[in-house]
């Protein structure tokens, strides 16, 4: 799938509908930028640096809480304005580090099953030869930091990987370092993830073998053609005029007209989803979000292969993820 080139001149605008939709999706989702559109996707979509993550659900929630704490207006519009203001700074940093993020992605994948998640993209260190990535340890409110040499992945550097865990702290005070370690540069991600989890007091995952340098120690999730319950909640939050579509790799919420050229498969509009829910309620059938998501998965599976076959015989290539506009 083609994506537009992302540059420092891009104007990334977060609006209230983006914030409202992300809030409905919940933990594990984020706002992304593909060079043309802002859209919602799973946070792991941005792990390898192939796409720019603006903000995740947890940061949106923290922004609301911080504004409330300081007695400032806290609504979708004010939070959207905040992230529009800082998106350019985030984008500048991402442009510097995204070519290196393919090295950190296996570590991010290995940490996720423990509930340890990446906070935005990594940062280049002062010397420019290392990348530092921070992770939230949700169970204890601490932060883990992994610093690795940019040549480590190709075995052209023997610089060890540095691990630091800092405990939670009060606002305005520096966090206290609770754990530090250095490990050989060839240590598999699964082993580093287990080390961090153990140091944080979480149950370690036991992997008996690491067949590859980038082994995460966890089976990779298969790709499913599926509508998630979060998509249903998100479409409900967006309201009239929005539609759930499939871009070939996942479901996205976009304006109805964005599917006209055939590059996107329309699953259901907001209006039709409301009608589906009403019909189920009238018949006395379950009509909760999970049931609706299952119905939409069935609809998607019925039409996906026909759409994919037709797309293969046209000159239309999906020009990036055409999403929230």
UniProtKB/TrEMBL annotation:
Please state what the protein is called: Uncharacterized protein
What top-level branch of life does the organism fall under?
Answer: Bacteria
Q: Which organism is it from?
A: Nonomuraea phyllanthi
């Amino acid at each position: 799938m083609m994506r537009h080139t992302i540059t420092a001149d891009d104007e990334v605008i977060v609006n209230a509908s983006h914030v409202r939709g992300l809030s409905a999706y919940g933990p594990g989702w984020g706002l992304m930028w593909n060079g043309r559109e802002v859209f919602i996707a799973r946070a792991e979509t941005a792990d390898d640096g192939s796409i720019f993550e603006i903000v995740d659900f947890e940061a949106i929630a923290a922004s609301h809480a911080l504004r409330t704490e300081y007695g400032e207006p806290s609504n979708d519009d004010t939070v959207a304005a905040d992230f529009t203001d800082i998106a350019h700074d985030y984008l500048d940093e991402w442009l510097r580090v995204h070519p290196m993020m393919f090295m950190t992605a296996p570590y991010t994948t290995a940490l996720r099953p423990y509930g340890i998640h990446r906070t935005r993209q990594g940062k280049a260190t002062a010397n420019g030869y290392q990348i530092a990535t921070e992770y939230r340890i949700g169970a204890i409110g601490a932060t883990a930091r992994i610093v690795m040499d940019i040549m480590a992945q190709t075995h052209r550097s023997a610089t060890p990987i540095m691990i630091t865990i800092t405990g939670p702290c009060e606002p305005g005070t520096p966090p206290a370092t609770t754990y530090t370690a250095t490990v050989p540069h060839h240590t598999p991600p699964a082993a580093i993830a287990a080390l961090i989890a153990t140091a944080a007091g979480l149950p370690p995952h036991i992997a008996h073998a690491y067949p590859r340098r980038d082994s995460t120690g966890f089976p990779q999730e298969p790709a499913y053609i599926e509508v998630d319950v979060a998509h249903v909640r998100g479409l409900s939050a967006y309201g009239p005029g929005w539609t759930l579509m499939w871009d070939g790799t996942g479901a996205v919420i976009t304006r109805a007209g964005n599917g006209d050229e055939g590059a996107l498969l329309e699953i259901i509009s907001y209006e039709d989803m409301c009608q589906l829910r009403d019909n189920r309620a009238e018949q006395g059938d379950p009509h909760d979000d999970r049931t609706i998501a299952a119905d939409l998965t069935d609809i998607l599976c019925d039409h996906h292969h026909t759409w994919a076959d037709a797309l293969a015989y046209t000159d239309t290539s999906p020009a990036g993820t055409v999403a929230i506009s």
